[in-house]
Fold this sequence. Notes:
By secondary structure, chain A is mainly alpha-helical. In chain A, 71% of the residues lie in helices and 0% in strands.
Amino acid sequence: MTKILSFAIDFGSYAIKGGPTYKAWLLFLLSIIMIGSYTAYRQLTEGLILVGATDQIPMELFFANFIFTAHVAAAAILVVAPGYFYHRKDMKELAVIGEIIAMCFVATGITFILFHMGRPDRLWHMLPGMGYPNFPNSMLVYDTIVLNVYLYLNLAGISYILYKKYVDEFDSKALARWFTPVIYLAIVWGPLIHICTAFVLSSNARMGEWATAVLPFGFLAMAGASGPSLVVLLFLLIRKHTKVQISDSVIDLMTTIIGWSLGIILLVFASEYFTALYSNTEHAASLNYTMFGHNGLNQYIPWFWGVVGSIFAGFVAILIPNIRKSYDRWLPVVCVVIFMSILLEKPMMLVFPAFSPSPLGEYMEYHPTLIEYFNVLFTWALGFISLTLLIKGAVGILTGDVRYHKPLVSE
Amino acid sequence: MSEKMTEMDIETDDAKQSRRDFLRNVGIAGAAALVASPVSVEASVGSANPDAETTVAEMLQGHFVLMSDKDKKQAIERLEKRYTAKYGKKTTVSDAPAPEGVLFGYALNISKCIGCRRCVHACVQENNQSRSNPEIQWIQVMKIPKGNFSFSADNLNKGYPESSKFGDYGVQVGGNAYTPVGGLSTEEAQNYYPQDEMVPDKNFFYVPVQCQQCEKPPCVKACPVRATFRDPNGVVVIDYNWCIGCRMCQLACPYGARRFNWGEPNLPPEEMNPKTHYFGNRPRMRGVMEKCTFCLQRTREGRNPACLEACPVGARKFGNLLDPESDVRKILATKKVFRFKEHMSTYPKFFYFIG
C-alpha cells in the first residue's frame, strides 16, 4: 500500500517538474480549463440551447471532435502493435506511450459525448441492471461498450507496466503470462472502437453522405494518418528533451504509416466521390453542397477544397525522403498540417454539411457559439493536460529517474 | 410445464423488481445524502416554489413501462403535483392504456390541403409545446411548386456536350426540364412562410409532414435506452423521463419529425393544456426529444387528433386500420394512396392520397 502511495506521489511530482516552457504550457492549459469550467457550467445548467445545434443540424462540434478523438485513440495501437506483432525491439519500450495516447484520447472523446448529451444526469439509463440498454439494436450502445472497455484496458495496461517498472519488479517473462494477452486485446480493440463509431454514423440510412460502406475504411485510414502524426510530434519532443532513446527507425515507421494512410484516404475519397457524382442522384446532394455550395450558401466550399488539398499535399510531401527525414524542420510541420486538416475535416466536411438537404429539403450552415468553442477547448485542454502529465511521468519511469526507494525507517 | 414456467417468470420478475428497487433506494440514499439537511424522498432540491421542482424520486424513476403499478401511480402523482404547482392549474396526467385491437392510421388528402397551417397551431395548443426560444412545432407544411414551369425552344441547343459530332443540342444532357415537377419531391419545397401569407397560392400545393408512425421506425432502433418505442396501437411514443437526449433518433428519422428541447421549454401557464397523458402531451423538460403521437391523450379515449379537428377543408382522416369500415381503410381501398419516402422502407401508417 505504501508502495502504491509513493508511486502516485513520485509520479505526480515528477510530472509537474520541468523547465519554464513546460510550466508555461501547463499554465496555458490550466487557464483554458478555468474559463472552460464556467462555460461548461453554463451549458450544464441552461442546456444545449447555448450551442449552435438545431433540429436541422442536431450534431455539434462536440460530436465532430469526438469522432476525431476516436481516430487518434484507435491509431495509438500503431505504436503498440509493431513491438508485439513484429517483435521490434526499438518499439516495445514505447508501447506504453502509445497506450497513454489511446487512453487520454478515449477519455477526451467520452468527455465530448458528455457535452453532447441533452441529459447527462440520466446516463445511468444505459447501465444494464439499473437502466435498459437497447442491446443489440442501438449502435450507440455498442459504441459505449467498446469505448469504455478500451479506456479500462489501457488504464490497466499503463498502470501495471509503470508500477512494475517503478518498484523494479518488471519481469518480462512473468509479464507475458497475463499481460501480453491484454495488450493483444487492446490492439484488436483499437480498430473496433473506430469501426463502431463509423457504424454509429453509417447506420443512418437517411444521411446520404454517411450511409456508405467505405466510411469505416475512411475512418481507419484517417486514424492511421492523424494518430501517428501526433505520435511523431510527441516522439520528436520526447527525444529532444529527455533521455529516452527513440531511434530514427521508429519515426520512419510512423511516417511510412502516415504516408500510406493518406494514400488510402485519397482512394476512399475518390471512390466515394466517383460513386456519388457519376450518377449524381439525390444521394449526392450534400456532397454537391459541400463541394460547390447551394444558392449562395458557400460556407463549406473552401474547407472542402482546403482539406482535400492539404491531405493531397501531405501525401506528396511525406513521400519525399528529404522531408520525411528532416526530423527537426519539415517533418513536424507536415505532421501538424495533417493532424489539423483531419481535425477540421470532421466538422466542416463530414458532419455539418451532411445535414443539408434536410429530410424536408432545407439547406443550412452551422454556426458554433462562443460557449461551444470554449467547451471544445476545455475538453481538449483536459485531454492535453492529462496527456502531458502522464507522458512526462512515464518518461521519468522509463528513464529510471522515478524509482521506488525503501523508506529508511521501517515501520 | 407452462404453469411452472410462468411461476418461474414471475419469480425472476420479482427478483428483478426487488433488485431494481434496491438499486434505486441506494441511489436515493446517496442523492439524499448530497442534499443538505434531512430531506424526505419527495422533498425538492430547493427553490421558491418547492412543489414545482423536479423531485429526487422523479430523477431516479425507472422506465415507465417497466414500473410496477404502484410505482406508476406514484410517478403520475408526482408529475400531477409538480405540473399543478408550476402552471397554477389543476393538471391531470393520465396513463390510460392503449385500447385493444386497434392500429391507428392517418390519411391526408394533398389535393384538398390549402396550406393554412391551422393544424400546426392546433397541435401546438393541444400538445403543450414550447412557445418561444425554442419554438417547437410538430407539423411542418411543405409548400411545393406545381410543375407549371415553361419549357423553352431556346434551350434546345443548350446542355452537355454543347457541340459534338451528333450536333449542338446536348446529346448527353439536355437544356430543358430542370425544375423538379411537383410530387413529393423535397427539392424545391419551401418550409418557412410569413404569418400573413395568403393561402392557397395557385402555383403551389401543400404537404403537411408530421411523425409518420412507421411500422418499422428507424428512431426506435437507434435509441440506446428504449426511451422511444412502438405502443400497442402502432404509435411511436417517448418516455420523456427516460430519454437521455443523445439525439440518435433525430439522426435516424428520414422525415425530420422529431423535435428536441434544446433549452428549458417556455410554456406560458395560461396557454397550458392541463389534460395530459404520460406518453402524450404532458409538459416536457429540457434536453429531451418530443414528437407527434397522433394526440395519444385524445385517441386513446376514442377522440380524433387535434390537427384533424382543426382542418377547415377535411383533408385529414384518422381511424383504426384494423376496422374495414373506418375512414382510413375506405380511403386505402378507393383512393390513389402513397407513402412519403417509400424507398426508406419505414412503412409509415401516415398515408397521403389524391382525390
